[in-house]
Design a protein that fits this description.
two-stranded antiparallel ribbon, 4 strands, transmembrane, cell division
Protein backbone atom coordinates (compact mmCIF):
# COMPACT_ATOMS: atom_id res chain seq x y z
CA UNK A 1 0.00 0.00 0.00
CA UNK A 2 2.91 2.35 0.76
CA UNK A 3 4.36 1.69 -2.67
CA UNK A 4 1.07 2.56 -4.38
CA UNK A 5 0.81 5.81 -2.36
CA UNK A 6 4.39 6.67 -3.26
CA UNK A 7 3.69 6.04 -6.96
CA UNK A 8 0.60 8.28 -6.85
CA UNK A 9 2.51 11.08 -5.09
CA UNK A 10 5.30 10.85 -7.69
CA UNK A 11 2.73 10.86 -10.51
CA UNK A 12 1.00 13.94 -9.09
CA UNK A 13 4.37 15.70 -8.71
CA UNK A 14 5.23 14.90 -12.33
CA UNK A 15 1.87 16.27 -13.49
CA UNK A 16 2.33 19.46 -11.43
CA UNK A 17 5.84 20.20 -12.70
CA UNK A 18 4.77 21.72 -16.07
CA UNK A 19 2.09 23.80 -14.34
CA UNK A 20 4.54 25.51 -11.97
CA UNK A 21 7.99 25.29 -13.61
CA UNK A 22 7.53 24.23 -17.25
CA UNK A 23 7.44 26.18 -20.50
CA UNK A 24 3.86 27.41 -20.04
CA UNK A 25 3.95 27.71 -16.25
CA UNK A 26 1.87 30.12 -14.21
CA UNK A 27 4.95 32.10 -13.24
CA UNK A 28 5.97 32.54 -16.86
CA UNK A 29 2.43 33.57 -17.86
CA UNK A 30 2.32 36.13 -15.04
CA UNK A 31 5.73 37.51 -16.07
CA UNK A 32 4.66 37.79 -19.71
CA UNK A 33 1.44 39.57 -18.68
CA UNK A 34 3.52 42.11 -16.74
CA UNK A 35 5.70 42.67 -19.80
CA UNK A 36 2.61 43.11 -21.99
CA UNK A 37 1.22 45.77 -19.65
CA UNK A 38 4.54 47.63 -19.66
CA UNK A 39 4.80 47.43 -23.46
CA UNK A 40 1.23 48.71 -23.92
CA UNK A 41 2.04 51.67 -21.71
CA UNK A 42 5.17 52.39 -23.74
CA UNK A 43 3.22 52.02 -26.98
CA UNK A 44 0.61 54.53 -25.79
CA UNK A 45 3.29 57.11 -24.95
CA UNK A 46 5.03 56.57 -28.29
CA UNK A 47 1.71 56.83 -30.18
CA UNK A 48 1.03 60.20 -28.54
CA UNK A 49 4.51 61.38 -29.52
CA UNK A 50 4.04 60.13 -33.08
CA UNK A 51 0.65 61.83 -33.36
CA UNK A 52 2.20 65.10 -32.21
CA UNK A 53 5.03 64.80 -34.72
CA UNK A 54 2.57 63.88 -37.48
CA UNK A 55 0.48 66.98 -36.74
CA UNK A 56 3.62 69.12 -36.78
CA UNK A 57 4.71 67.67 -40.14
CA UNK A 58 1.26 68.32 -41.63
CA UNK A 59 1.39 71.87 -40.26
CA UNK A 60 4.80 72.49 -41.82
CA UNK A 61 3.69 71.08 -45.19
CA UNK A 62 0.43 73.04 -45.40
CA UNK A 63 1.18 76.55 -44.22
CA UNK A 64 3.76 79.18 -43.53
CA UNK A 65 2.53 79.96 -40.02
CA UNK A 66 4.39 77.07 -38.41
CA UNK A 67 7.55 77.88 -40.37
CA UNK A 68 7.40 81.54 -39.30
CA UNK A 69 6.86 80.51 -35.68
CA UNK A 70 9.86 78.20 -35.79
CA UNK A 71 12.04 80.86 -37.43
CA UNK A 72 11.13 83.33 -34.69
CA UNK A 73 11.47 81.03 -31.69
CA UNK A 74 14.48 78.93 -32.72
CA UNK A 75 16.45 81.25 -35.00
CA UNK A 76 15.46 84.63 -33.56
CA UNK A 77 14.35 85.94 -36.96
CA UNK A 78 11.94 88.86 -37.18
CA UNK A 79 10.02 90.48 -40.03
CA UNK A 80 10.78 93.93 -41.38
CA UNK A 81 9.26 96.67 -39.19
CA UNK A 82 8.61 94.15 -36.42
CA UNK A 83 9.75 94.72 -32.85
CA UNK A 84 11.08 91.75 -30.89
CA UNK A 85 10.31 91.55 -27.16
CA UNK A 86 11.91 88.98 -24.88
CA UNK A 87 10.25 88.52 -21.51
CA UNK A 88 12.28 87.00 -18.69
CA UNK A 89 10.41 85.82 -15.60
CA UNK A 90 12.13 85.97 -12.23
CA UNK A 91 11.71 82.70 -10.33
CA UNK A 92 12.13 83.39 -6.57
CA UNK A 93 13.26 79.86 -5.62
CA UNK A 94 15.96 79.72 -8.28
CA UNK A 95 19.31 81.54 -7.76
CA UNK A 96 19.59 82.49 -11.46
CA UNK A 97 16.77 83.76 -13.68
CA UNK A 98 15.53 81.31 -16.31
CA UNK A 99 14.63 82.83 -19.72
CA UNK A 100 11.19 82.14 -21.12
CA UNK A 101 10.50 81.53 -24.80
CA UNK A 102 10.71 84.83 -26.69
CA UNK A 103 7.52 86.51 -27.83
CA UNK A 104 7.11 88.90 -30.73
CA UNK A 105 4.74 91.73 -31.37
CA UNK A 106 3.87 93.81 -34.44
CA UNK A 107 5.12 97.39 -34.43
CA UNK A 108 2.50 99.74 -35.77
Amino acid sequence: MKLLTLIFVALIALLQYPLWLGKGSWLRVWDLNQKIVAQKSSNTELKLRNDTLDAEVRDLKQGNTAIEERARSELGMIKQDEVFYQVIDQIPSSPTPQPVAPTTGQHE
